[in-house]
Amino acid sequence: MNSKIKSYITDNCNVIHKKPLAEIAQLMKQLSPHASRIETKNRQSLNYIAGGQHNCFLLHQGSVALYRSVDGMVLNSESAPYIFGISTQLLESDYLYIRTQETSEVSILSIEEANQIIAKEDLWKNLANLLIYTATRVYDHCTKISSLSSYEIICYQLYELMNETEEMRSSVSIVSYIKGRTFLSRSSIMKILAQLKTGDYIVTEKGLLKAINNIPSRY
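^ that's the sequence the OP posted. Answer follows.
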């Protein structure tokens, strides 16, 4: 595998493995009693701002993706447990929104109440670790889609897809997943995927990713 791709994949895995689970769990323990559970369906959109109020979402089960409103590009995706919305509380417009990627369990509370609870329970260190991880994940994604070749971007996104939950992988095609997270055209994505499949470097079924073998270093 190309050393650059391998490095990016390794770095990404390291970031994911550094997810501050203990800190997130403590935040959710304190915030959950004050949050309202909401019914969600697969691919349901949730807005941070509603009725002039900023909200945050607690992800108890499932996974969701962070989208940019202007063009629908995916900037990040996370599996439970996670908290969305705290890092966007200063935005005055809906530049971002989240969408469930599978059947998920979500609860909601206002940013104002969340901030009060965090201050009361002295959870600033927990919050700082969550925000650092969130910023790193988004920065990591934006760096990779702007500094790699088309082939390298697709290889990286294939490994990203393999890191998603099984339910997520069985509900979204490889092309849709990559196109939603990059600036690449559908035709260029399909061309490279077809060649990777022909060479048995990836295993697919009805457009879904089943396995990744040793992807070649050069296109």
